[in-house]
Amino acid sequence: MNRNVKIFLMIFISIFLNLGTSILIFDVMHIPLFLDTIFTVAIVFYLGLLPGLAVGFCYNFIDVLFNYLVRGIFSPTNVFFSLCGVAITLVTWAFARKKEEFKISPMVTILYLLLISVLSSFVTIFIGGTIDFIRFTYLEIPDSMAPIRQFTEGFLSQRFSLFASCILGQIPISITDRLISTFAGYGVFLLLNKLFGPSEEL
């Protein structure tokens, strides 16, 4: 099979694995986390920046389409969260492109993954909070993730500004989500290496 076809298939499968993971964690198990970027992280490590951007950017469009066709819920503003996927991809790639350094020692690997988690948390908290602020202000649409909405409303009740409340409301969920997704994504990358060999050999 042509290498480009294999890469396209991996991108396509990763988008739907992200969707499946999110449905399993949030809808089936009722755990208030997204975990919809595990395979985005894995693809960035395994295939690089452009395939990672394709997964990170396209996921939310597929999610919106799925919600409309399967659940009858149409939330077009959710596509703006693709910016979070892009930001996570860029932060991850900034470190993943130096994969050889991850092999220095387990402690170095953990430190790099923690750094990716912290930095990607920061950007997703800011981007997600800003999107929520715009949706609250102009469309009166609260965040669909109930805990984030509750945190935001809690800060509002304490007389924080709407923008500050939208940012702060993202923090508990986003930090936990990024930690789990980053470490799990790296684990999937190691599994891909074991199953298919280095990406250069595809």
Please give the number of β-strands: 0
CATH architecture group name: Orthogonal Bundle
The radius of gyration is 17 Å
Described by strand count, sense and barrel closure, the largest sheet is:
none
Q: Number of folding domains?
A: 1
Mean pLDDT: 92
Provide the succession of SSEs: HHHHHHHH
Low-confidence stretches: none
Q: What is the terminal-to-terminal distance?
A: 9 Å
Question: What is the CATH T-level topology?
Answer: Arp2/3 complex 21 kDa subunit ARPC3
Estimated structural class:
mainly alpha
- Please tally the helical runs, counting DSSP H or I stretches of 4 or more residues: 8
As a percent range, the share of strand residues is under 5%
Cα shape: globular
Quickly name the level 1 CATH class: Mainly Alpha
Please estimate the helix content: over 70%
Blueprint (SSEs and pairs):
Elements: H1 3-28, H2 38-47, H3 49-71, H4 82-96, H5 106-139, H6 146-157, H7 162-168, H8 171-196
Helix pairs in contact: 1-2, 1-3, 2-3, 2-4, 2-8, 3-4, 4-5, 5-7, 5-8, 6-7
Question: What this model shows, in words?
Answer:
The chain has a single domain, classed as Arp2/3 complex 21 kDa subunit ARPC3, CATH 1.10.1760. 76% of the residues lie in helices and 0% in strands. It contains 8 helices and no strands. The chain has helices spanning 3-28, 38-47, 49-71, 82-96, 106-139, 146-157, 162-168, 171-196. The longest helix is centred in the middle third of the chain and has 34 residues, at 106-139. The chain is globular and about 55 Å long.
